[in-house]
Amino acid sequence: MSAVLNGIYIDGSWRAGDDVLEVINPATEAVLAEVSVGDAHAVTQAVDAASAAFVGWSKSTGRDRGALLRKIAQGVSEQREQLMHLQSSNNGKPLFEAAIDVDDVIATFEYYAAVAEDMDAGQDRPVALPSDDFSARLRREPCGVVGLIVPWNFPMVTTAWKLAPALAAGCCVVLKPSEVTPLAELQLARIIAEAGLPAGVFNLVCGTGLDVGAPLAADRRVAKISFTGSNAVGVQVMQRAAETIKGVSLELGGKSSLLVLADADLDLAVELACGGGFFNAGQMCSATSRVLVADSLADEFLLRLQARAEAIRVADPFADEVQMGALINRVQYQRVLGHIQRGIEDGARLLCGGERPADLPKGFFIRPTVFTDVPLDSALWNEEIFGPVLCVRGFASEEEAIALANASDFGLVASVVSRDIEATERVANALQAGLVWINAPQVIFPQTAWGGYKQSSIGRELGPWGLAAFQEIKHVISSN
Asked: Given 3.30.450.20, 3.40.309.10, 3.90.550.10, 3.30.420.40, which CATH number is that of 257-445?
């Protein structure tokens, strides 16, 4: 094993922490690396550095900030292959999925580089008033030092979605990567350092949620926390942030639906169901884990879905023709298997999958799993599983399908499949979700918002909404 990697970057320099965590390859269960991690003291030092740097960085021009964001995008592009391999080794996802992640990172930094460059001309905007005796202008200013806490399922992507708009807005950052998947994040941090940001603008502290995330959320000098992860941890982050009345953005869970209407293209519907349910081994808050199919199509759809799911090649992320990789770790692997077993005990019918592939004795692999006849009150139907598990139910009418889709504590995304354009638009408008795809895979663009209704989100990421999440609004009113 190589030397311990420094997992702390503060005020422009790398530092070693007192404790070390092992980083595991989920496909082989082998130790990939050891990373030194921080604690509350390291968080304090990182916030110190960010607070000092904010004085100058907040006054920098949007054009200068945009130029630095473009350098980061270029650095990621130049190290694309290395980042892909780090992501696949550490996360367990196939290389083609890691490539999508890296390209998303590049596109996000490029998008916010352009946004930053346009900010100089529009920093102050006049506001029309009903009285000629007064004039007013609107200013958008960076909110201050921000804490970014990102998950293990899309580590570089979720970092880019938060970091790029925070830097574009003029904020200084303390980033906490997931302690489970820090390797690609550490390389991304090196790229960011090489881009030439002033010392203290970007800081990183690896470590656990208890040792790093909690003190970061509690520090009164941190103006905002942006967190992506589970609802249970999101509640804890919000409680910590409430102690100092700081802003929070939360991207949490989902239990999303794919609605297959009576005139749908079944081949397309099956592909979208598998893509939405099994991409990243189903470890997505946007996973379309509930598939609602018109009764007239249900039998044929299930036959095709079963055949497609059973044909998916589950293997090491670097294997030839691999289509689905491993779950992130043993805890998640056992959790998903527990959901599957409870679903069977609740009376759901297991159509396929639900077990480890016979040819993969090591690693955290589960075959693509499909259930039908799932009781509406079962955990399988209502709780986020975060694994390669689809639940399929029929519906008799469009109204019933919408009601079933909306009957959830979550409202992140949804999908609709139909040849009837008017029907798809009508259903999309009725669904309680922040993003709806019509006859399309789960493609995401930096220009469109990411976030959802109900317990899925507080706030939005990406687009102008992602920038606004890191800005304060100031109005200045003058007497004429």
From this structure: 3.40.309.10
How far is CA 222 from each of CA 41, 49, 349, rounded to the nearest angstrom?
15, 12, 49
> Model-level pTM?
0.96
* DSSP symbols for 50-117: HHHHHHHHTTS-HHHHHHHHHHHHHHHHHTHHHHHHHHHHHH---HHHHHHHHHHHHHHHHHHHHHHH
Supply the angle between the helices 183-194 and 155-169 in degrees, to the nearest 10. 30
What is the predicted pLDDT for the residue at 2? 59
Tell me the three state secondary structure of residue 237. Answer: helix
Q: What is the mean pLDDT of residues 433-458?
A: 97
* DSSP symbols for 444-479: --TTS-B--EETTEES-BSHHHHHHTTEEEEEEEEE
Supply 259's token pair: 């609605």
Domain-wise residue ranges, the chain:
8-252+456-479, 257-445
Pick the closest to residue 171 from 150, 197, 208 (CA basis).
197
C-alpha span between 432 and 394 (Å, rounded): 20
CA distance 299 to 303: 6
Q: What is the pLDDT of residues 317-332, one digit of tens each?
A: 999 999 999 999 999 9
pLDDT at 1 over 60: no
CB 224 within 8 A of CB 355: no
pLDDT band at residue 218 using 50, 70 and 90 as cut-offs: very high
What pLDDT sits at residue 3?
74
Residues with active-site annotation: 251, 285
Tokens representing residue 248 in the block: 């929070």
For the chain, counts of helices (H) and of strands (E): 15, 22
